[in-house]
Write a structure and sequence with these properties.
alpha/beta; single chain; binds pyridoxal-5'-phosphate; Aspartate Aminotransferase, domain 2; Aspartate Aminotransferase, domain 1; 12 strands; three-stranded antiparallel sheet
Amino acid sequence: MAGTGIYLDYAATTPLRAEVLEAMLPYFCQHYGNPSSIHAWGHQAHAAIEQARQSVAAILECEAEEVIFTSGGTEGDNLALKGIAWAQRSRGRHIITSQIEHHAVLHTCQALEQQGFEVTYLPVDSEGLVSPEALEQAIRNDTILISIMYANNEIGTIEPLSQISQLAHARAIPFHTDAVQAGGLLDLRVDVLGVDALTLSAHKFYGPKGLGVLYLRRSTPFQTQQHGGGQEDGRRSGTHNVPGIVGLAAALELAYRKAPAERARLTNLRDTFIDGILTRIPQVRLNGARTRRLPNNVHVAFAGLTSIGLVEMLDTYGIGASAGSACSAGSTQPSHVLQALNLPAAYLHGALRLTLGAETTSADIETTLEVLPECVSYLRRLAPQPD
Ligand code: PLP
């Protein structure tokens, strides 16, 4: 993996692993058949897809038929929410989610509201955790879907999925989780998590962009949203992206081979990084939970400066960071996640997300810890002072 400078934005995307590219290459020019064709070229492509499906299923500990290949996290979230909601429209119209979901979930919920569904957006506590008690109280007789993310893409907080799934299943309500940020690092065994649907995106675990998985438990009510040639058992039509699917499976397999060691390594680096920032810089706060947190996520907020200025200044030092989620980058408004945390006003505009990954070293953390205090005090000196 190449690149200049210090890349600390692995939550936005990750580089493709060389081994993954190697696995994909034969499926562009050599084995180019359409997996739906019934000749040798087609059979070969079909076999590659089914092999990929098996290997994804082995990691999720589910049946191969429960794995649906998609174009990524956004599609997976849309497909899960719309497919599960519309399939149960005669049973009820109430959906529960949280205020800190990714826009792929939030905007889908808003679209469903316009189509006659009702959505409860649960608040979170100051660490970003959904309360199972609040969730229980929100459940109604007509609740047909609960969607709570596995780990938040901005602040890294890991939600209490097992407790939520117990509540959902006691009332026979399907439970979906957006596991896009957890994929590649955290446990994805669907029975352990107790989920009925789970969204993954390959570019977050060193696979190709534009590829994902929607796990859908066999018994989960589901109505097709994309009609056409009937691929993926009619659940998601469209000619398969064969190299991409092969790459997704190779990336997921590699990620889980490395996950135990990588989790420990990243957690160490993360904690050194957090401690370093909190001790070297005044008027800073850590956002998200301290331990129920993605191993690669550091999210802090500084009083008296703006995120965009800080990200741009770090960039001039060759450090790639983020003002929040990639999707809200460029926006001057505090993200919906920060707003849900009820941060003191002075910190709302000064958020910085630093996310670590395969190539991050302790030297990278040390360098950033030297540069960051300088950037922060420079920007604070520039900021207009209150009268
Ligand atoms: N859900 C979460 C939590 C994400 O972080 C992202 C991407 O950042 C998505 C969904 C969307 O995934 P994709 O980029 O594959 O569409």
